[in-house]
Amino acid sequence: MIPAAGAAPLRLALAALATVGPAGGCVADQERPATSLDPQGGAAAWEGHAREVFDDNIEAAAVGFSLDGPSPRSDPFLRERAQTADVVARVRVSTVTVDSIGEKSTYHLGIQVGYPPLATPRVPDRTFELHIRPTSRAFGIAKAIDARLRGLTFIAFIRRFAGEAGEPEIHWHLSPDTAEVAAAVKEAVVLGELSAP
Protein backbone atom coordinates (compact mmCIF):
# COMPACT_ATOMS: atom_id res chain seq x y z
CA MET A 1 0.00 0.00 0.00
CA ILE A 2 1.28 3.45 -0.91
CA PRO A 3 1.34 5.96 1.97
CA ALA A 4 -0.78 9.08 1.44
CA ALA A 5 2.35 11.24 1.21
CA GLY A 6 3.67 9.11 -1.68
CA ALA A 7 0.39 8.87 -3.60
CA ALA A 8 0.44 12.39 -5.04
CA PRO A 9 3.85 12.05 -6.74
CA LEU A 10 2.84 8.63 -8.07
CA ARG A 11 -0.39 10.03 -9.51
CA LEU A 12 1.52 12.90 -11.11
CA ALA A 13 4.05 10.51 -12.63
CA LEU A 14 1.34 8.22 -13.98
CA ALA A 15 -0.60 11.20 -15.37
CA ALA A 16 2.54 12.34 -17.17
CA LEU A 17 3.04 8.83 -18.48
CA ALA A 18 -0.51 8.88 -19.85
CA THR A 19 0.30 11.88 -22.03
CA VAL A 20 3.43 10.33 -23.53
CA GLY A 21 2.53 6.64 -23.21
CA PRO A 22 1.93 4.13 -25.99
CA ALA A 23 -0.52 4.68 -28.80
CA GLY A 24 -4.10 3.72 -28.22
CA GLY A 25 -5.27 6.54 -26.00
CA CYS A 26 -7.08 6.32 -22.71
CA VAL A 27 -10.71 5.44 -22.62
CA ALA A 28 -12.17 7.03 -19.54
CA ASP A 29 -15.03 5.50 -17.61
CA GLN A 30 -17.45 8.17 -18.78
CA GLU A 31 -17.03 6.91 -22.36
CA ARG A 32 -18.30 3.44 -21.40
CA PRO A 33 -22.05 3.02 -21.46
CA ALA A 34 -23.22 2.33 -17.92
CA THR A 35 -25.64 -0.26 -19.29
CA SER A 36 -23.07 -2.25 -21.26
CA LEU A 37 -23.43 -5.22 -18.89
CA ASP A 38 -27.20 -5.38 -18.95
CA PRO A 39 -28.63 -6.97 -22.10
CA GLN A 40 -32.04 -5.49 -21.32
CA GLY A 41 -30.46 -2.07 -20.75
CA GLY A 42 -28.92 -1.84 -24.23
CA ALA A 43 -25.41 -3.30 -24.46
CA ALA A 44 -23.23 -1.97 -27.25
CA ALA A 45 -23.35 -3.70 -30.61
CA TRP A 46 -20.29 -5.63 -31.81
CA GLU A 47 -19.57 -3.61 -34.90
CA GLY A 48 -17.05 -1.20 -36.37
CA HIS A 49 -14.17 -0.40 -34.01
CA ALA A 50 -15.41 -2.88 -31.39
CA ARG A 51 -14.65 -5.72 -33.84
CA GLU A 52 -11.01 -4.61 -33.97
CA VAL A 53 -10.64 -4.32 -30.20
CA PHE A 54 -12.49 -7.52 -29.22
CA ASP A 55 -11.54 -9.48 -32.32
CA ASP A 56 -12.12 -13.09 -31.18
CA ASN A 57 -8.44 -13.76 -31.74
CA ILE A 58 -5.64 -15.67 -30.05
CA GLU A 59 -2.23 -14.05 -30.46
CA ALA A 60 0.23 -16.41 -32.15
CA ALA A 61 2.81 -15.80 -29.41
CA ALA A 62 0.29 -17.00 -26.82
CA VAL A 63 0.44 -20.54 -28.22
CA GLY A 64 4.15 -20.61 -29.06
CA PHE A 65 3.79 -19.99 -32.80
CA SER A 66 5.90 -16.85 -32.57
CA LEU A 67 8.61 -16.22 -30.00
CA ASP A 68 9.34 -12.72 -31.27
CA GLY A 69 5.89 -11.19 -30.82
CA PRO A 70 5.57 -7.42 -30.64
CA SER A 71 5.80 -5.72 -27.26
CA PRO A 72 2.38 -5.52 -25.58
CA ARG A 73 2.91 -1.78 -25.21
CA SER A 74 3.03 -1.50 -29.01
CA ASP A 75 -0.42 -3.12 -29.33
CA PRO A 76 -2.68 -0.21 -30.33
CA PHE A 77 -5.71 -1.84 -28.68
CA LEU A 78 -4.28 -3.25 -25.43
CA ARG A 79 -5.03 -0.14 -23.38
CA GLU A 80 -8.56 0.12 -24.71
CA ARG A 81 -9.19 -3.59 -24.15
CA ALA A 82 -7.94 -3.34 -20.57
CA GLN A 83 -10.10 -0.32 -19.83
CA THR A 84 -13.35 -1.44 -21.50
CA ALA A 85 -13.45 -5.22 -21.02
CA ASP A 86 -15.92 -6.72 -18.57
CA VAL A 87 -13.25 -9.20 -17.45
CA VAL A 88 -9.47 -8.82 -17.68
CA ALA A 89 -7.74 -11.77 -16.06
CA ARG A 90 -5.57 -14.80 -16.47
CA VAL A 91 -7.70 -17.66 -17.71
CA ARG A 92 -7.20 -21.37 -18.19
CA VAL A 93 -8.83 -23.38 -20.96
CA SER A 94 -10.67 -26.18 -19.19
CA THR A 95 -12.56 -27.74 -22.11
CA VAL A 96 -12.31 -27.79 -25.89
CA THR A 97 -15.22 -29.12 -27.93
CA VAL A 98 -15.87 -29.02 -31.67
CA ASP A 99 -19.21 -28.93 -33.48
CA SER A 100 -19.00 -29.94 -37.13
CA ILE A 101 -21.67 -29.41 -39.74
CA GLY A 102 -20.44 -30.70 -43.08
CA GLU A 103 -16.97 -29.28 -43.57
CA LYS A 104 -17.53 -26.35 -41.20
CA SER A 105 -16.40 -26.63 -37.60
CA THR A 106 -16.95 -24.38 -34.61
CA TYR A 107 -14.67 -24.63 -31.59
CA HIS A 108 -15.96 -23.98 -28.09
CA LEU A 109 -13.41 -23.14 -25.39
CA GLY A 110 -14.60 -23.44 -21.81
CA ILE A 111 -12.43 -21.09 -19.77
CA GLN A 112 -11.99 -20.58 -16.04
CA VAL A 113 -11.12 -17.09 -14.78
CA GLY A 114 -8.12 -16.99 -12.45
CA TYR A 115 -7.85 -14.99 -9.26
CA PRO A 116 -6.98 -12.24 -8.64
CA PRO A 117 -8.17 -10.53 -11.83
CA LEU A 118 -5.95 -7.89 -13.46
CA ALA A 119 -8.81 -5.35 -13.33
CA THR A 120 -11.98 -5.12 -11.28
CA PRO A 121 -14.49 -7.35 -13.10
CA ARG A 122 -17.78 -5.81 -14.20
CA VAL A 123 -19.60 -9.15 -14.21
CA PRO A 124 -19.61 -11.87 -11.55
CA ASP A 125 -19.06 -14.77 -13.99
CA ARG A 126 -16.01 -16.97 -13.34
CA THR A 127 -16.45 -19.24 -16.36
CA PHE A 128 -17.12 -18.41 -20.00
CA GLU A 129 -17.53 -20.27 -23.26
CA LEU A 130 -15.66 -18.70 -26.15
CA HIS A 131 -16.81 -19.58 -29.67
CA ILE A 132 -14.35 -19.83 -32.55
CA ARG A 133 -16.26 -19.96 -35.81
CA PRO A 134 -14.73 -20.45 -39.28
CA THR A 135 -14.97 -16.65 -39.73
CA SER A 136 -13.16 -15.93 -36.42
CA ARG A 137 -9.58 -14.65 -36.56
CA ALA A 138 -8.52 -17.41 -34.14
CA PHE A 139 -9.88 -20.21 -36.31
CA GLY A 140 -6.53 -21.10 -37.91
CA ILE A 141 -4.85 -21.41 -34.52
CA ALA A 142 -7.75 -23.43 -33.08
CA LYS A 143 -7.67 -25.80 -36.05
CA ALA A 144 -3.90 -26.25 -35.82
CA ILE A 145 -3.82 -26.86 -32.07
CA ASP A 146 -7.28 -28.36 -31.53
CA ALA A 147 -7.58 -30.24 -28.22
CA ARG A 148 -4.08 -29.16 -27.18
CA LEU A 149 -5.63 -25.79 -26.28
CA ARG A 150 -6.96 -27.48 -23.14
CA GLY A 151 -4.83 -26.56 -20.15
CA LEU A 152 -3.25 -23.49 -21.77
CA THR A 153 -3.36 -20.18 -19.93
CA PHE A 154 -3.83 -16.72 -21.43
CA ILE A 155 -4.49 -13.16 -20.38
CA ALA A 156 -8.05 -12.66 -21.56
CA PHE A 157 -10.06 -9.57 -22.38
CA ILE A 158 -13.75 -10.45 -22.44
CA ARG A 159 -16.71 -8.18 -23.12
CA ARG A 160 -20.43 -8.71 -23.59
CA PHE A 161 -22.16 -7.14 -26.55
CA ALA A 162 -25.76 -7.08 -27.76
CA GLY A 163 -26.53 -10.05 -29.98
CA GLU A 164 -28.71 -9.94 -33.08
CA ALA A 165 -31.76 -11.23 -31.21
CA GLY A 166 -31.10 -9.00 -28.19
CA GLU A 167 -29.41 -11.67 -26.08
CA PRO A 168 -25.85 -10.96 -24.94
CA GLU A 169 -22.95 -12.41 -26.89
CA ILE A 170 -19.35 -12.57 -25.75
CA HIS A 171 -16.38 -11.32 -27.75
CA TRP A 172 -12.80 -11.53 -26.61
CA HIS A 173 -9.07 -11.39 -27.23
CA LEU A 174 -6.45 -13.76 -25.78
CA SER A 175 -2.89 -12.55 -25.19
CA PRO A 176 0.18 -14.42 -23.92
CA ASP A 177 0.20 -15.07 -20.18
CA THR A 178 3.46 -13.24 -19.53
CA ALA A 179 4.68 -10.79 -16.90
CA GLU A 180 5.19 -8.19 -19.64
CA VAL A 181 1.55 -8.35 -20.80
CA ALA A 182 0.29 -8.33 -17.20
CA ALA A 183 2.38 -5.23 -16.42
CA ALA A 184 1.08 -3.42 -19.52
CA VAL A 185 -2.50 -4.29 -18.55
CA LYS A 186 -2.08 -3.07 -14.97
CA GLU A 187 -0.53 0.17 -16.23
CA ALA A 188 -3.46 0.69 -18.64
CA VAL A 189 -5.98 0.08 -15.84
CA VAL A 190 -4.27 2.61 -13.54
CA LEU A 191 -4.14 5.19 -16.33
CA GLY A 192 -7.85 4.66 -16.97
CA GLU A 193 -8.63 5.19 -13.30
CA LEU A 194 -6.56 8.37 -13.22
CA SER A 195 -8.34 9.78 -16.27
CA ALA A 196 -11.79 9.06 -14.82
CA PRO A 197 -13.67 12.06 -13.38
Descriptive overview:
The longest helix has 17 residues, at 4-20. The protein is 27% helix and 26% strand. It is built from five helices and six strands. A six-stranded mixed β-sheet has the order 1-6-5-2-3-4. It is an alpha+beta fold.
**What is the H/E order?**
HHEHEEEHEEH
Number of helices: 5
The computed structural class is: alpha+beta
Total strands: the figure is: 6
Mean pLDDT: 81
By oligomeric state, this entry counts as single chain
**Biggest β-sheet description:** 6 strands, mixed
Q: Please give the share of residues in helix.
A: 25-40%
Within the largest sheet, what's the order of strands? 1-6-5-2-3-4
Rounded radius of gyration (Å): 17 Å
Q: Uncertain segments of ≥5 residues (pLDDT<50)?
A: 1-41
User: What percent strand?
Assistant: 25-35%
Distance between the terminal alpha carbons, to the nearest Å? 23 Å
Q: What form results from the Cα inertia axes?
A: globular
Write the layout of secondary structure elements.
Layout: H1 4-20, H2 49-53, E1 57-58, H3 78-84, E2 87-101, E3 104-113, E4 127-132, H4 139-145, E5 153-162, E6 168-176, H5 179-195
Parallel strand pairs: 1-6
Antiparallel strand pairs: 2-3, 2-5, 3-4, 5-6
Helix pairs in contact: 1-5, 3-5
